[in-house]
Structures are given as C-alpha cells and as structure tokens.
Amino acid sequence: MGVLVDPFLANDFMLRALVAGCLVAVACAIVGTFVVLRGLAFIGDALAHGVLPGIAGAVLLGLPGIGGAVVGAIAMIAGVNLVRRRSRLSGDTAIGLLFVGMLALGVVIVSRSDSFTGDLTRILFGEVLGIGWDDVWVQVGAVAAVAATAAVCARPFLLLAVDPEQARAAGFSAGLYDWLMLAMVALTVIVSFQTVGTLLVFGMLIAPPATAALVARRVGAMMAGAAVLGAASVACGLLLSYHYDLAAGASIVLVEVAVFFLVLAVQGLRRQTARPATA
Amino acid sequence: MIALAARDLAVGYDGRPVVEGIGLGLAPGDTLAVVGTNGSGKSTFVRTAAGLLPPVRGGVTALGGPPGAAPARVAYLAQSHPAGFVLPLRARDVVAMGRFASLGLLRRAGADDRRRVADAMARMGIAHLADAPLGGLSGGQRQRVHIARILAWGADLLILDEPTSGLDVAGRELLLTALAEERRRGAAVVLCTHDISDALVADLVLLLAGRVVACGPPAEVLTRESLLETFGLVISGLPGEEGLVMDPSHRHDHEAVPPGA
Questions:
Q1: Per-residue pLDDT of chain B (261 residues; tens, 9 = 90+)
Q2: Counting beta carbons within 10 angstroms of the beta carbon of residue A31, is it exposed (0 to 12), middle (13 to 18) or buried (19 or more)?
Q3: B97 touches chain A (CB under 8 A)
Q4: Can you say how many angstroms the Cα of residue B73 is from the centroid of all Cα atoms in its chain?
Q5: What is the DSSP-derived secondary structure letter of residue B107?
Q6: Number of Cα atoms under 13 Å in the Cβ half of residue B163
Q7: Is the CA virtual torsion B233, B237, B241, B243 positive or negative?
Q8: From residue B103, how far is each of A236, B6, B62, B88, B109 by CA, in Å?
Q9: Domain B4-255 adopts which CATH fold?
Q10: Tell me, what's the ipTM?
Q11: H helix intervals, A216-247
C-alpha cells in the first residue's frame, strides 16, 4: 500500500497534483459527456488549441495565463461562428481552419520568447507537479460552475444531443444552449491547462466519457463513470510518473486512453464468446 | 379557436418558397392529412406550422398564436430521428423527453408525468421495452418509442411527419387508435403521409406537389385528377375504383427543392 499512498502523503506537490487532477477529471467528466453525446469532439479539440496564442501572449507580456486563455477561447468561438455564417463551408472546415491558424499563431508568439521550448512544453503539456493551492481554488470554482450549469440545463443539453430540432420544438433555444455548452468546454479547458496542458486536456475531456459510453445505459451513469475513471487515471498516472520518472500529465492521459482500448477489447471478446452460445 | 390556420402562406427555405398559397383552418379534434410525394413540400409546411421554420410570406397561427410560441401545447415528430451514435438512453428516457416542454428547465417530473410516460408506452405497445437500451431496439420499435414521446406530451396540436414509416401493421393500428383518442380529448392532428388510406379518414386533406393541388374535405379533394396531379399515378385506393393509372406526361418539376424539404 505504501507504494500507492506514500508519494501523496510525503510530498505536498504530489497531493496538490492529485487534488487538482481529480478536479479536472470531474469537470471533464461532466462537460466531456455532453461533448461526446453532442458530437462536439472536434470543436473541443479546436478550443483546446485555440487558447494557445492567448496563453502564449499573456506569458510573453508577463500577465496571468488564464486571462490570455479566456481571450483565446472567445476569439476561437467567434471565429468559428463567423466562418460558418459568412461562407458556405461546413462547420468542420471552419473549425479546422481556425484550429491550425490559432496553433500556428501560438507557436509564432512563443518563438519570440527566450525560453521557447520550455514555455511551449509547459503550455501544451501542463505542469501538474507545479500546481499551487490558489490554482486548486480556481478549479474548485470552475467545477462548481460547470456542475451547476449542467444540472440546470440538463434537459436542453439532452435534447440537443438527440436532435437540435427536438430542443427547439420543446421550446429551448438551440443557439443559446449550444453556446452555453461551448462556454462550458472553454471554461474547462481554460482552468485545466495548467494541470494537464492545452494538448492533453482534450484527452481528459474525451477519453473517460467515451470509455463510460461503451458500457453505460444512462447519461447519469456515463457521467459518474467518467468521473471515477478520470480520477482513478489521475492517481494512476501520477504514481507511474513518480515511480518511473515519467511526464505526469502525459502519463495520466495515456492511462485514460489505454483504459478505453482495454474496455473496448474486453467488450469485443465478450461479444465473440457470447455469440456461439446464442446462435 | 382554430388549432391551425394558414392564410395565403408561402413556406420554404432562406426566403425561397417551396410551396405558395396555402390557406386552411383546422378545428380542434380534427385531422389534417398533408399528402404528397417526397420533395412536395409536406415537411416544409409542417415544420413551418411547428415554428421550426419562419414562413416566407403570409400568415400562419398555431392554437391562436404564432407557431413555436406554446411549445408545451404543440408536439412535433420529425420524419427521421438522427443520432450520430446511439446514446446511452433507455426507451423510457426518450419517452420522458416528451414532458420536457411542459416541465421547462427546472420543474421536477412528478407522479403525473411518470403516469403519462407509462401510459404513452402502453398505448404504443412498448411497456415491456421501458428499460431496454435505445441501441438495442429495431427501427420500428424506435419509431414507436418516438411516437410514445409525442403522446406523452399531452399537446393540443400534434404534428407528425410520416409517423407510419417503419411501423408494422400492429404499430400502425396502435398509432391510429392513439391518435383517435387524442382527437376525442380535443387535440388536433396534422399528419404527413403518402398513403391515400390515411387521407380518406382525415377531416381535411392538403394535396401538395410543390404547389397546392387541392385543399378540402377528402370526399371533394381526393379525385382521380387531383391524385394524378399529386403523384403522377393512381394506385387504386379510392373507394369504388381500382387499378393503376399513370400519367406519362406528369413531370416532377417540384423535385428540385433543398435537402430536408
């Protein structure tokens, strides 16, 4: 047991990382469930990268990264809406354009910095072992905001996942609740980038809900399952990183993705063994 | 009060009309059958009546107000039920969505809501599937689930776009019985169909072919000539008549409409 518990008890930085990581896991489970159900994975990915130039600009100017991330996310959402409305291109193309554009802009901005690779790595992959308690409190606030929004908007969000037209027929503005959903994704990405980075937060957003979706029969169960899976992956990834000296954020996401394929494989095996019995 | 009224109504997409000059009044407790081929403008008309599309021109009211103003009183069943991948929902959860318009954002579902949901599932013969995952149901069973969702709505105007598609004979009978019950309690029904037998039992028929071919009681409207104009052929169906009549000169000029029309 000592191998599993001692690293967190003996090192304050490990404990902070665990708490912060679990908070990210809970926020990502709530938001990611709707992202997976609504099919917003691509725009979630784009948002995660879209915040990069904002953060990079803020870091270069010596301002807090979170402020820059907010500006980046707003620019990203506004840009996607603009391209969608002004051209006959599909949403995917609009998102893709903005996605690479913002990523490139971010890298260009960071390249002005003296510690180019260090800054870029920190933004893309996070610094989960360098989290402070004040960062943790910001995350507590974000988790509360995301949970409250999801609870209040559960019905329109569910209808949107089934069919946006059904949401409108039931009297819910599809535009408003789509926007709210994107705002939740943006908020989660913004407060999570310090922990796991803009590149890896997308993994935490998608992998646990996708894994839970393989087995869950209800949306609530999918969300709860994703939260448990996410939190367990955080603990597992941090321990792997501690004992084997691996990158912490990447270890967490790697565990999550590995669990997805493990569940998928087990399901496939069970289906194959079940088939001769029923035939 | 009139359940659904249209006056010189033009419906379409992005300001381009698909059908023009629709005028009708549907009384509570009555059925309107909207009949036409694919692309004739049926869905465009009912989506306008449901408040999902703005009218291109003219006037339309649902239950005395602008369409879409009273979602708790107007139920709408779309022609298809897109779901990119199968959602983790049970049949019961989908039917319960029919109560969302009445419940709004925050009001908790009560015993009455649960009773309406159970009742609607029983009426469509799917009470035994209540806890079945949606992904495990056949296409016809899913259609029954979605119709039960509309019945659970408790609406005063039911708008159903081709509800019989995918239904077997038993499912179709259950649907027609349920709609008769809805009408008896005073609800008006709008039904898109290309089945003449549905139109024969309606109170009002609107024949569409990219324009209004005819509109009125079935006895006046469902003539050999108007059906030839609507479909380009007549496959029996009319009382006292038999056989297949085709109009070789019928041109499907109205097929060039936007997708989803």
A1: 799 999 999 999 988 999 999 999 999 999 999 998 888 899 999 999 999 999 999 999 999 999 989 999 999 999 877 655 668 889 999 999 999 999 999 999 999 999 999 999 999 999 999 999 888 888 899 999 999 999 999 999 999 999 998 899 999 999 999 999 999 999 999 999 988 888 888 999 999 988 899 999 998 888 888 888 888 765 555 665 555 555 545 444 444 444 444
A2: buried
A3: yes
A4: 15
A5: P
A6: 30
A7: positive
A8: 42, 29, 20, 22, 7
A9: Rossmann fold (3.40.50)
A10: 0.84
A11: 219-244
Residue A156 structural domain: 2-270
Asked if A148 and A215 touch (Cβ cutoff 8 Å), the reply is no
CA dist B93 and B100 (Å) reads 11
Q: B46, B81, B95, B105: which to substitute to probe chain A, counting the most A Cβ within 10 Å? A: B105
The CA distances from residue A109 to A67, A116, A193, B237, in Å, are 16, 9, 18, 72
The domains of chain B are located at: 4-255
Number of domains chain A is built from: 1
Residue A223 touches chain B, beta carbons under 8 Å: no
Residue B259 burial (10 A CB sphere; 0-12, 13-18, 19+):
exposed
Could you tell me which residues come within 8 angstroms of residue A236 by beta carbon, excluding any fewer than 6 positions away?
A252, A255
**Cross-chain residue pair A169–B87, CB shorter than 8 Å:** no
Chain A residues in contact with B88 by the CB 8 A cut-off are: 213, 216-219, 221-222
* Predicted TM-score (pTM) of this structure: 0.86
Whole-angstrom Cα distance, residue B113 to residue B122? 14
Count Cβ–Cβ pairs < 8 Å, chain A vs chain B. 68
- Mark yes or no for CB contact B105/A156 under 8 Å: yes
Nearest CA in chain B to A174: B52
**Both tokens assigned to A235:** 């603990």
Q: Are B37 and B194 contacting, i.e. CB atoms less than 8 angstroms apart?
A: yes
3-class secondary structure, B53: coil
Q: Is residue A277 part of a domain?
A: no
CB A14 within 8 A of CB A178: no
Contact B35, B230 (CB under 8 A): yes
Q: Give B57-83 as a DSSP string.
A: EEEEEETTB-TTS-TTTEEEE-SS---
User: Pick from B50, B84, B87: which is nearest to A169 by CB?
Assistant: B50
A115 in any annotated domain:
yes
Contact criterion met (CB below 8 Å) for A104 and A122 = no
Residue A279 is assigned to a structural domain of this protein: no
In angstroms, the CA A114 to CA A62 distance is 13
Question: Facing residues of B133 across strands?
Answer: B90
Which of A35, A36, A162 to probe by mutation at the B interface, max B CB count within 10 Å?
Answer: A162
